[in-house]
Amino acid sequence: MGFLLQQLINGFMLGATYSLLAIGYTLVFGLLKLLNMAHGEVYMIGAFFGWTIVTMIHLPIYLALLGAFVIGGILGIIVEFFCFRLVSKDYPLASMLSTIGLGVILQNFALVFSGGEMVRFPEMLRTSNFYIGPVIISEVHLVIFGIALCLMLMLNILIYKTKLGKSMRAVAEDKNVASMYGINVNVVTMATFFISSSLAGITGVLTALAYHSITPFMGVEQGLKGLAVIVLGGLGSVSGAMAGGIILGLSEVIAIAYLPADFTGYKDAIAFAILIGILLFKPTGLFGKFGLEEKV
Amino acid sequence: MSEGYLTGIFIQIGINVILALSLYLPFSTGQISLGHAGFMAIGGYFSSILTVNFGFPLLVAMVLAGVLSCFFGILVGYPALRLKGIYLAIATMGFGIIVQIFFQNFNYTGGPMGFQGMKGTNFILTYVTAIVFSYLIWRLMNSRIGRAFEAVNEDEIAAAAMGINITRIKILAFSLGAGLAGVAGALDAHYVYYIDSHNYSFLRSVEMLLFLIMGGSQVVWGPILGAVILTSLPEVLRFMAGYRMIFYGCLMMFLMIFRPQGILDRRLLLRLKNYLVPWKVSHS
């Protein structure tokens, strides 16, 4: 029982980072019905920027988180401008390829910067553990989970309680009608990209804190898993992305714990097996609100 | 620059032309696949097992690899009929990644250690295959079936009303594309001597999509042109060393801003035709 509880808690920690990344995808998809494939790379750049602040400028970790948040947001605005606003809307795949191109650029910048080697992220938090009965919770995990939860709460407030959130929802519903009501669609889109990508940047630092190592390629796999999560939760649904991330985190951790040793290599396949299953049997996802009529 | 180096690049271009065409087939009926690296892996591994462990000649192994990939194409294509656009792209992406993870853990083909001992792909074999398939696809696109592909791509309901069996046409296009990817996978495996699951990552599928979209997805010549340009470009840019992929990415972004339909589209092809064969002027 204690073992299971421990795995569940680990799964929640892992899942929270998946959720944060997936929320970024789903915000953009909800607004434009297009995928931002550079999202994983923004996450990676966030981790590298945090690392630079911590090891080269020797600032505390909380400033690194803030820095990654800001740099992620700036990258998001760049993505929006060069890959979405300037690219013709008549060819939806063009935007997707353009974001892949931007991802290639970001990845290779990191590659040149790091020299292609795995970079060790210093342990910034005291590694004291809390013992609750048979369950161990490390402080790092608690901080990560706490920050993730705070961000998700703030996002929910932003979307459902503020004027910007209201206009974001309006633009997602119908761009033309929203602009008729005096909403500046370009500004709202830009703000959405800022929020989406800054979440990715901060997630990069959070996972770097948990795993202590960062590589220029860390964004690829994480980005693909984020995609799987938004399909699971329903494309365009924010609460779906939150729940989907937790579900994926839990199922991965439990699979590692309970599958026979020969099969643990398949743990990364779980995300994509779930993804295919969901797409075939319930294409709108668990919490989806958009139908299947897509532009592409 | 040695002769072997140049031949190697030319063989790669040939293989990539086949891969780009393999994606063009499903795309011409409106199906986007981001899992073609999976079909390529199936073809590559299966043909390698046949030639290395059972001593089959390469040509026979290539044909069998194509048939097996084609079969898997039907297996994936049939349930995927329900999905469209981004949803289909994501589902096929999942398939490709699962195939990659499978081969990473499959001990018979060496698992993470990879599989080696294949040889035999040469310049002539690659280009004979590439040219034969280009010709066949060009003929196919101008045949009754090709017209059906186009009709399904433009409007499925209208196509069905004209008596086209959409299910059959879409599965035909998807499985033919998958089979072609398998053939290219066989050629590729016997060219690189050593394969492991990383050869067939998601990025491989993205690369194929790049050939198709940047070359132009409206005409057969588009993916061929895309494969030729994008395969030779990193070699041409070699002098930039670490920055060449950054340049490559910038080029992708600029091209998508200024020419989102790809380099070669119907209009440009028509103008080229009128320019090159002025005595057969055609308008549209």
Number of strands of chain B: 2
Q: Which parts of chain A are unreliable, with pLDDT below 50 for 5 consecutive residues or more?
A: 290-296
Specify which chain pair forms the largest interface. Answer: A-B, 49 and 41 residues
Q: In CATH's first tier, which class of chain B applies?
A: Mainly Alpha
Helix content of chain B: over 70%
**C-alpha termini separation of chain B:** 46 Å
Describe the protein in words.
With 296 residues, chain A is mostly helical. Chain A has one domain (2-281): ABC transporter involved in vitamin B12 uptake, BtuC. Chain A is 73% helix and 4% strand. Chain A contains 11 helices and 4 strands, in the order ααααβββααααβααα. Chain A has helices spanning 2-32, 39-55, 61-85, 92-114, 139-161, 163-173, 175-180, 185-211, 218-233, 238-258, 267-281, and strands at 119-120, 129-132, 135-138, 213-214. The longest helix of chain A is centred in the N-terminal third of the chain and has 31 residues, at 2-32. Chain B is an all-alpha fold and 284 residues long. Chain B has one domain: Orthogonal Bundle (ABC transporter involved in vitamin B12 uptake, BtuC), CATH 1.10.3470. Chain B is 73% helix and 1% strand. Chain B has 12 helices and 2 strands, in the order ααααβααααβαααα. Chain B has helices at 3-27, 36-54, 58-80, 85-105, 123-141, 144-154, 156-161, 166-192, 202-215, 221-236, 244-258, 266-276, and strands at 115-116, 194-195. A two-stranded antiparallel sheet of chain B has the order 1-2. In chain B, helix 6 crosses helix 8 (166-192). The radius of gyration of chain B is 19 Å and the shape is globular. The model of chain B has no long low-confidence stretch (mean pLDDT 87). The interface between A and B is large, with 49 and 41 residues.
